Amino acid sequence: MALVTTKKLQEEYERVLLARDMKPEMATKLAAGFVEMANEGTYSHGINRFPVFIDQVDKGQIQLNNTPECVNSMGALEQWDCKFGPGVLNGLICSERAMELAREFGIGMVGMRNSNHWMRGGTYVLKMAREGFAGIASTNSIAVMPAWGGKDHRVGSNPLIMAIAGDPPVLVDCSMSQYSYGQLQNYVLEDKKLPVVGGFDDNGELTSDPHVLWKNKRLLPMGFWKGSSMAIVLDMMLTAISGGNSVPALTEDMGGEFGVSQFLIAIDLSRTIEKDQFTNEMKRIRDYVLASEPAETGSVMIAGSEIEKFIDKHEKAGGIEIHDEIWEQIKSL
């Protein structure tokens, strides 16, 4: 494993982006977005997916210098056309706008069409939570998962993402597949079995072998039929709210995961609950959960509480450990 400083990672990402004629200030911001995800522990999207992102750039699916534009304003709800620009920058820009709307109306929502993979979707609602808001988000994808009871791909992973202010903020970034492809790749690279079953093998039997699932892509919906249903209704909502592409449109018409539909919602908590009451209630919920009687295996934790540990870990180690194969791919771009 290569040990790479965040400074070196930022420099490599900027080098690759500038070589493709991205505007310098946009390249710096985009590279920093990828590095932040990696430094906060999301290696699957902050590092492993960067070569995939660049491949889409080289194919013309992502337009590096395009920025989103508001095309329809309805008070607290706006629709933005992202013009196939980088999903990370789209998410950062539109999350700022959602918070601006929330400051004015109490709640702000931005529906985004013609966007691209925004990597760790939790980035944008976590940004809201760190500024005192609650945030909700979702994005669709090409069909990557069988519907419950089906065998071929008809459903996107379509995560539901939520965060709320706190110390630390709470973040849930939840793909509708039992494992996201990013997490699945991590297990493939480490040659480790999944902790719980993640899908079906070629004989239709449940399996925890990541290599089988990476090849046949028969991922299990989270919560079986519940996850399948959630993924479908989220796609319907994303398409209707953004006026953009659905999972079938991305899969059959676009022929790839670009031009996706997304939404971001910000809620101004200063308008919904008194500050002291909020602090006390969030602490009570946290303490109540953490006082659980321990099970035979595992430990009780609050979602998002590991982020600072990853940052501290990388600082103490002097960098982030990157799989040699992925690091060589990045350096060769």
Task: Explain the overall architecture.
- With 333 residues, the chain is α+β, with helices and mostly antiparallel strands.
- Helix content is 45%, strand content 18%.
- It contains 13 helices and 13 strands.
- The strands form four sheets. It has a seven-stranded mixed sheet, with helices on both faces. Strands 1-13 form a two-stranded antiparallel sheet.
- Helix 5 links the parallel strand 3 and strand 4.
- 45% of the residues are buried.
- The model has no long low-confidence stretch (mean pLDDT 95).
Q: Helix amount, in percent?
A: 40-55%
Instruction: Profile the largest sheet.
Output: 7 strands, mixed
- How many distinct helices? 13
Q: Outline, from the CA principal axes?
A: globular
Radius of gyration: 20 Å
Low-confidence stretches: none
What distance separates the N and C termini?
19 Å
SSE string, helix = H, strand = E? Answer: EHHHHEEHEHEEEEEHEEHHHEHHEH
Average pLDDT metric: 95
Helix vs. strand class? alpha+beta
Strand count: 13
Bin the strand percentage.
15-25%
* Strand adjacency order, main sheet: 2-3-4-12-5-8-9
Features:
single chain; 333 residues; alpha+beta; 7-stranded mixed sheet; two-stranded antiparallel sheet; 13 helices; 13 strands; 45% helix; 18% strand
SSE map:
Layout: E1 2-4, H1 6-18, H2 24-39, H3 43-48, H4 50-58, E2 69-74, E3 77-81, H5 87-105, E4 107-115, H6 122-130, E5 133-139, E6 145-146, E7 153-155, E8 160-164, E9 170-174, H7 181-190, E10 199-200, E11 206-207, H8 210-216, H9 225-242, H10 247-254, E12 260-268, H11 275-290, H12 307-317, E13 320-322, H13 324-332
Parallel strand pairs: 3-4
Antiparallel strand pairs: 1-13, 2-3, 4-12, 5-8, 5-12, 6-7, 8-9, 10-11
